[in-house]
User: What shape does this take?
Amino acid sequence: MTSEGIPATGEQPGDMTSGEEEHPTFDTSVAHVARVYDYWLGGKDNYAADREAGDQAIQAYPDIVRSVRANRAFLARTVRYLAREQGIRQFLDIGTGIPTANNTHEVAQSVAPDCRVVYVDNDPVVLSHARALLTSRPEGATDYIDADLRDTEKILAQAARTLNFSRPVAVMLIAIMHAIGDDEDPNAIVATLMDAVPPGSYLALSHVASDIVPAQAADMIRRLNRLMYEKTTPRRRPDVARFFDGLDMLEPGVVRVQEWRPDTEAEAKSPSNMWGGVGRKR
Ligand SMILES: C[S@@+](CC[C@H](N)C(=O)[O-])C[C@H]1O[C@@H](n2cnc3c(N)ncnc32)[C@H](O)[C@@H]1O
Assistant: This one.
């Protein structure tokens, strides 16, 4: 479905609960990443299993809540920077999450109301909230695609309803690539997406780290992977940097998310277990 009122294929207009009823992975007895993340952010779209997984992570790594907040702040800063400083007007945000404060289109359209944003997620609860993501300013547009990141063909085909792929696009992969295991060739997924966008496009990416607080991260991921439907693969900084192969890295490179062009000293000091960076396609 799009903010311009075009129903997406197979979706009943106005029936925003259909995803929860029909989606094969909708099971409240097993923790799901979008709902666990919602719990950490203080949202209400989570169940006992999600809270249990979230609490297990807090026990292993007490800074996890500050880490996810630092990641959200990174998302907002990269969108604002790309819209304001680089003139980007199109965003493809894959792994959207349950809507919260400062969703991508809100940040982008606060800089330039004509920004066009396509959201992609495979979680039925995110789908059920899609309407909250479709509140575009009239000058711009938003769309929501219910798809798996691995299905790049579907994502790119449906995103073309809203985005003009002959003009620069910011591909946002914020806190999602660790959901793709090494055996699924995550680098090829990123490369396929970046091949589809023209020079002058950007990749903004953040990723759970295995080498920032190694012992705490290992304990946290072990607990989460025992309880969660989707498994998390944390990666080292050089592996995260490899997602940007062939792109020109913007300063300061791949850093802890709070260190990427922080707005305040306090923001820069907030702990996180996430690497993040932004690269530009030549
Ligand atoms: C940790 S949340 C991040 C949300 C948001 N990008 C942020 O950083 O605040 C990860 C999101 O990615 C989604 N996700 C995980 N694996 C996915 C996949 N294979 N395809 C599409 N979405 C996926 C989850 O449903 C969840 O909403």
Summary: The two ends are 32 Å apart (CA to CA). The pocket of S-adenosylmethionine is lined by residues 33-34, 37, 71-72, 75, 95-97, 121-123, 126, 148-150, 174-176, 179, 230 (CB under 6 Å). The CA atoms of residues 1 and 10 lie 10 Å apart. The longest helix spans residues 64-84.
